[in-house]
Amino acid sequence: MSVQPKIYVAGHRGMVGSAIVRQVLTAGHPASQVITRTHAELDLTNQAAVNAFFAAEKPDQVYLAAAKVGGIHANNTYPAEFIYQNLMMQANVIDAAFRNGVQKLLFLGSSCIYPKLAPQPMREDALLTGTLEPTNEPYAIAKIAGIKLCESYNRQYGQSHGVDYRSVMPTNLYGPGDNYHPENSHVIPALIRRFHEAKVSQAPSVTIWGTGTPKREFLYVDDMAAASVHVMNLDKAIFDQHTQPMLSHINVGCGYDITIKELAEAIGKAVGYQGEIAFDPCKPDGTPRKLMDSSRLNALGWHAKIGLEQGLQLAYADFQKTTSSSL
Ligand SMILES: NC(=O)c1ccc[n+]([C@@H]2O[C@H](COP(=O)([O-])OP(=O)(O)OC[C@H]3O[C@@H](n4cnc5c(N)ncnc54)[C@H](OP(=O)(O)O)[C@@H]3O)[C@@H](O)[C@H]2O)c1
Predict the structure, then answer these.
(1) 225 in Cβ contact with 19 (< 8 Å)
(2) Can you give the pTM of this predicted structure?
(3) Rounded CA separation 251/227 (Å)
(4) Percentage of residues in the chain with pLDDT exceeding 90?
(5) Ligand 1 test: best mutation among 69, 178, 192, 251, most atoms within 8 Å of CB?
(6) Distance of CA 88 from the midpoint of ligand 1 (Å)
């Protein structure tokens, strides 16, 4: 009888971690073989606590989806917390995993690891070729260190201990578990809230910052979770064929980008908002384009499945559930 691996999902209450738990359970993995701890139960910046947890639980696989994350404002205001906490969490988890015999670990990074002026679409080999976006540089440096931690443990302990630690870099994600805070959220949850409020108040128009022409890529979070499980479980020989020991991270995106205007129209439709959508070109636009090159992942046999229209409908349903339960 084959014994199912014991999987630890770090950050299981977060948007990505909760989607990974859903994905693993939906695929038939027994719930008894999935272990989680809340932040209150286990502070991952506490090395002794992390070591004790791994020694007691002895997981076989680790999804490292815990992180201190935030928008531009939070990154600018708390840069010390962003770099310190993320470095500590990933160093503690990766080292404790190694010391307790974990051979398979997946580290979640972010597209902000790439240089501000990286050629579009951004390929994995754009890493460390230029200056980062200053607003989230401390966070990005921590994420780059996470990739290099995985690679360094593979290089030193791959042969001797069977260590096989991998990293995935998601594009912008949305879906269940998103943060719908009015000021402090990403573009999709922020627009879902604004269009919903405009629908309820029957506002004649919604004005969006900028010209609406910048292009961005979005991936539904359950697709991200499916990609994470796919990369974790890829045969090592196949993974090695498509990666290099010191260039091993894998971009995860849907492969195409859309303008903010197209996005706003799609969200308006998903929410059922009937009014006008206006743009304020006096407000800043940001980078004209940000798209990941996901051809490495595609060559490894994974493609996104949930289109924007379906994803936005699911996300709006989640928003309604979340906001009605918080009233
Ligand atoms: N969301 C996106 O669009 C996106 C895009 C690209 C990459 N990613 C990456 O995906 C990963 C997960 O992001 P997410 O959106 O799921 O973030 P999230 O919703 O904020 O979840 C992060 C989780 O980590 C936990 N955590 C934070 N500090 C901790 C600590 N010291 N000890 C234990 N747990 C701690 C949080 O718990 P508490 O809330 O209790 O602190 C939370 O459950 C991150 O690495 C992020 O860079 C996300």
Answers:
(1) yes
(2) 0.96
(3) 10
(4) 91
(5) 69
(6) 14
Q: pLDDT tens digit string along 192-241?
A: 999 999 999 999 999 999 999 999 999 999 999 999 999 999 999 999 99
The answer to whether residue 115 scores a pLDDT higher than 80 is yes
For every residue of 207-239, DSSP letters joined together read EEES-S--EE-EEEHHHHHHHHHHHHHS-HHHH
Give the model's pLDDT for residue 72. Answer: 83
Q: Are 95 and 136 spatial neighbours (Cβ–Cβ below 8 Å)?
A: no
* Best residue among 8, 12, 13, 16 to mutate for probing ligand 1, ranked by most atoms within 8 Å of CB: 16
* Number of the ligand 1 atom closest to the C-alpha atom of 174: 3
Q: How far is the CA of 18 from the centre of ligand 1 (A)?
A: 10
Instruction: Identify whether the C-beta of residue 150 lies closer than 8 Å to the C-beta of residue 107.
Output: yes
Is pLDDT above 80 for 326? no
Show which residues are catalytic. 139
Residue type, 90: Q
Q: Which residue has the higher pLDDT, 327 or 231?
A: 231
With beta carbons less than 8 A apart as the criterion, state whether 209 and 216 touch: no
Residue indicated by tokens 């928008």: 71
Distant-in-sequence contacts of 238-245, Cβ < 8 A, 24+ apart:
238/300, 239/164, 239/166, 239/300, 242/296, 242/299, 242/300, 243/296, 245/151, 245/154, 245/155
Q: Could you read off the pLDDT of 1-46 as tens digits, one per residue?
A: 568 999 999 999 999 999 999 999 999 999 999 999 999 999 999 9
Q: How many A from CA of 280 to the centre of ligand 1? A: 32
Specify the 3-state DSSP secondary structure of 259: strand
Owner of token pair 């998601």: 170
Backbone angles phi, psi at 226, to 5 degrees: -65, -40
* C-alpha torsion angle, residues 312, 314, 318, 320 (rounded to 10): 70
Q: Which residues line ligand 1 (CB under 6 A)?
A: 11, 13-17, 39, 43-45, 65-69, 85, 89, 108, 110, 170, 172-173, 186
Tens-digit pLDDT profile for residues 78-98: 999 999 999 999 999 999 999
